[in-house]
Automatic annotation (TrEMBL):
Full protein name: 5-epiaristolochene synthase
Pathway where it operates: Secondary metabolite biosynthesis; terpenoid biosynthesis
SUPFAM superfamilies: Terpenoid cyclases/Protein prenyltransferases
Keywords from the UniProt entry: Cytoplasm, Lyase, Magnesium
Length: 134
């Protein structure tokens, strides 16, 4: 019993200091943030023409294959590829079925990486022998 009383006294003696922090420079701005629907609709209306412009750039028939691959890579790196999944899959399917060769290793490597990332079954050895002129 004596030891239990000593433990109780010890727990009562623990005093935790309270820090006196200065107020935040931001105040409660992030705690009381509200996004208005009108602003969201305005942003959505501004985005639609840009999406259509990007879609037309993807589907342009006169563009070179290297430019199309670079555009797809850029769209994916920007994180907006989910808007154009159907178009990108169609383009990569066409590229997979084509027999095209490139003079530069960069474009060939980009084609190989994009096709592999999108689930096309490509053997590295066969791809190198087929697509790269040495």
């Amino acid at each position: 019993m004596a030891s239990a009383a000593a433990v109780d006294n010890y727990q009562e003696e623990i005093v935790r200091p309270v820090a006196n922090f200065s107020p935040s420079l931001w105040g409660d701005q992030f705690l009381s943030f509200s996004f208005e629907n009108q602003i969201a609709e305005k942003y959505a209306q501004e985005i639609e023409p840009l999406k259509e412009q990007t879609r037309s750039m993807l589907l342009a028939t006169g563009s070179k294959l290297a430019d199309t691959l670079n555009l797809i890579d850029t769209i994916e790196r920007l994180g907006i590829a989910y808007h154009f999944e159907k178009e990108i899959d169609e383009i990569l399917d066409q590229i997979y079925n084509q027999n095209s060769t490139f003079d530069d290793l960069c474009t060939s490597a980009l084609q190989f990486r994009l096709l592999r990332q999108h689930g096309f079954n490509i053997s590295p050895g066969k791809f190198i022998m087929k697509h790269i002129r040495l």
